[in-house]
Amino acid sequence: MVERERSGHVGRAALLPTAVFQILLPLLAPMVDVHLAYGLMFLDPVTTAAIWGGVLSLQLAAGIVAFRPEGEPLRALVLLPLQQVIYRQLMYAVLIQSVASAVSGARLGWQKIPGSARSVPHRGRPTPRSPCPGGPT
What we know:
By secondary structure, the protein is mainly α. The chain has 3 helices and no strands.
């Protein structure tokens, strides 16, 4: 973790932004959604919706900046508001479970879904194999 050479500097410089953007802000994000719901119900809903729309516009602009150099179609950004409401809730559950297991020291497995289908060998003609370079022919 601690290197005296140049290569260690890059890793140490990335620790703070990684901690902020990958851990701290995602942990605070549920409070933003709670504040949105509270503001729509008990405060001025027009002001709350305008602020949420402004933040969504900033995220949309960041998405456009990210998609343009890659040549990705911008129509995928249409789902951004839906992602803010539905998909993010699922990510909260994953993040909270991960942080809780990290704090408690428990190992968190991959949570594999048990398979119910059986593998059946293919009964057709075998496909010709190309010889492996340097191997038997």
